[in-house]
Amino acid sequence: MSNLERDPREIRCTAGPAGGPAIEAEGAAVPAPDAPDEREVLIGREVPLGGPRAMTVSRTLPGVHRRMIGAWCFVDAYGPQHATMRVPPHPHTGLQTVSWLVEGEVLHRDSLGTLQEVRPGQLNLMTAGRGISHSEESPQTVLHGVQLWVALPGEHRHTAPAFEHHPEPPVLDGTGHRARVLMGTLGGVTSPATAYTPLVGAELAIDGAAEVPLEPGFEHGLLLLDGEVAGVERGPLVYVPPGRTSIRLPGRGRVLLIGGEPFAEEIVMWWNFVGRSHEEVAAYRKEWMDGEGFGVVEGFDGAPLPAPVLPGTRLKPRGRVR
């Protein structure tokens, strides 16, 4: 999925500690839950995708205060809603896209020649590396899922573009929960999906008083997908700072868990590009508009998505929190 905003804001923040104050989104502070683990609640903003009849997503990363959780730099959650997804061909650099559905189906095409449908319980992972373009479509159906981006570290951000489809991610059966491990490692279970930094992504099916293992060196985020789970309300993304070896999640429902080592590099994140400088992002934009560097998505019935105009001020590399 793309960032389809016609006037995307520069993602600005400065390096800072792994923890932080109670949450804010769009400038409004929201008290954190009364808990000794200093969780934060990141309220998302609603973003329409593709026009007046488009479906709406809740974007919790990047936020006003916190821009990343580990290398995870973008979280869009949508549905359940009756909708048609139609995202024209568009470019990406310096990141991986992670597509995970709870309900519905989405057809992925890319400039490598990939044609791959993704359904609930399956993982589509696209590594943009030095540059790729793709499109996404679905029929009129109930859509419910998440689209996430993972920033690539400096030594791997110019890697060759690639695509992976994992129809059956590995499963961890734990106390009160069953986890499908999308990326990284959880409780000793490791996904075959390619990751370039220490991280984790998993869908947790909670059934009772779950005790979920955590990597203490990771910061984590929790997003409720359905059901009722104590401490994780529908909509916001709950941030948990490093230092914990487990977390209790009483209830019944499904929760998305993301996490990783705090990302040490400063990045420039604008539209669908992750780079390291204004000049680099401007060059990516020019290449896309000139029809160079990103290949061609064959089979999509429509024109590629034009890039927005760059902002009047220079884009600056920033860290993961403000």
TrEMBL record:
Query: Matching Pfam families, A to Z?
Result: Pirin (PF02678), Pirin_C (PF05726)
Q: Where is the composition biased (Basic and acidic residues)?
A: 1-12
Q: Which residues form the signal peptide?
A: none
Pirin N-terminal domain residues: 57-150
Which PANTHER family did the record assign? PIRIN, PIRIN-RELATED
Family in the record: Belongs to the pirin family.
User: Any idea what this protein is called?
Assistant: Pirin family protein
Q: What is the lineage of its organism?
A: Bacteria, Bacillati, Actinomycetota, Actinomycetes, Streptosporangiales
